[in-house]
Design goal:
2 copies of one chain form a homodimer.
Chain A (H helix, E strand, L loop, with lengths): L1 E8 L5 E10 L2 E10 L3 H4 L4 E4 L11 H13 L2 E5 L11 H16 L7 H25 L3 H4 L3 E4 L3 H12 L3 E7 L8 H6 L4 E6 L7 H10 L5 E6 L9 H14 L6
Parallel strand pairs in A: 4-5, 4-6, 6-7, 7-8, 8-9
Antiparallel strand pairs in A: 1-2, 2-3, 3-5
Chain lengths: ~260, ~260
């Protein structure tokens, strides 16, 4: 992990915000690492939450740093975020990226439910690559005594769930996950069934991209004994703010329960 | 309100637990009132949560005092509970009550979904009477300066929702409600549609008494702009413990936000 820049945010207790580049088999993956100022003894735990952004968003888009600051401030955990392939600083052709986003917005406005096959194929390819990148980030974090012991959590809805399901299914270091805004698909069913860690799933009742039922079908598929679905009214990007507090309470219960405090 | 007995529970800050009888048009309605020791200035708010017990349960059954203690301890609010008609201390014929409960358990074990017409008719009659009793309790609480200003919240699942929907629909003093384990019925639809206060709804995915869908239909019917459904795996009486914390967070947001602290 190559540190590109570091700043201290003016938050109670102090939050370090680090921009880093991670080299994964020759590919540069830009990321963010937020963590409490002070050493491990002071903060009392070595947990990290991975925040995976949504489609057409990036590591510093709106809810990602806001959630990161909240988790660091209130849980005193570390938080990491990466740009997904073809997102954020990894966009090569800005015109093409804008055209793709506009097309997606048009599709949603047309009332089409579900994504087209080309988009699904591109998502599957990105997911495969990004799983490798997230696991490389966990490997890297574990070379630092401060974060090595974990536990690790996952927070990602929409595309953050598309990427999160294979990560959580195949990496036993993730012990609790917040998913949402996603549907049961042939591409995620086997992985979903193999997941057994506690899950909080955020579902929007009027999601333009899917019905409530296909999201419930994904929730049904998870093998987890503890899995809670929260349904709220509103569209795909209208998850209420108070679900951030629900996510915080979920991670407090699952990542900090056994941590020294 | 006639105080029958009073004890101080050994909890941080101190909790007063009062057994009272309320006279409602000549009928004695036994109830409980829990509240923080210390005066209003010390506790900082005048909010009260009404906890309505489930069918075949009563004002001191398991989760009622446990929830009450949690809300008083962590939110510093008052909590009240009543015995519903034909429940708790209001059971006249214990043999008949036991037979009715056994029959209900058998029906559930048979995998019958939905309640029989006789049970539904008895529930409707009890609900009508109990709504009057709850509103009389709020009237009585408002004669005490400590609790007069409210706000008032409702917590009741299963029969606690059967009784809660008409109370909340017709009494504007209730400004936030936790409902659950209940289905859309011809008897509750109009009231549900007229409710606009924030709602948290607890739904069990494997409820023996109803499908997930009829509970979702009830949630859909509420006129509230803020309404969140939490779905967990398990049967009718297996709501996870952590939903108590979710209920607490819900009331903290809606009953204490504007209260002096």
């Amino acid at each position: 992990m190559k540190i590109i820049s570091e700043s201290v945010l003016d938050e109670p207790g102090g939050i370090i915000a680090r921009r880093f580049d991670l080299d994964v088999d020759g590919t540069t993956v830009p990321g963010m690492h937020w963590f409490p100022a002070g050493d491990t003894t002071e903060i009392g735990n070595s947990a990290t939450v991975c925040i995976a952004h949504g489609g057409f968003q990036h590591k510093l888009y709106g809810n990602v740093p806001e959630l990161a600051h909240q988790f660091v401030r209130n849980l005193r955990v570390g938080v990491v975020a990466l740009d997904a392939p073809d997102h954020g600083d990894r966009i090569v052709d800005r015109e093409a990226a804008k055209a793709a986003r506009d097309a997606a917005v048009r599709n949603a406005a047309d009332g089409r439910r579900g994504l087209d096959p080309d988009t699904l194929a591109a998502m599957a390819k990105r997911a495969k690559q990004h799983v490798i990148e997230w696991r490389a980030l966990l490997d890297d974090l574990q070379t630092d005594d401060r974060w090595a012991a974990g536990p690790f959590g996952w927070w990602g809805v929409s595309m953050g769930t598309t990427h999160g399901i294979p990560v959580v299914a195949h990496d036993p270091r993730i012990t609790a996950a917040v998913f949402g805004l996603n549907a049961l698909q042939p591409t995620n069913e086997a992985d979903a069934r193999s997941i057994t860690v506690p899950i909080l799933f955020l579902n929007q009742s009027d999601d333009e991209l899917m019905t409530r039922e296909v999201a419930l079908a994904l929730w049904d598929a998870f093998g987890s004994k503890e899995k809670t679905m929260h349904i709220n009214p509103g569209g795909h990007v209208q998850v209420p703010r108070f679900e951030r507090d629900a996510s915080e309470a979920f991670f407090r219960r699952h990542l900090l329960e056994n941590a020294p405090r």
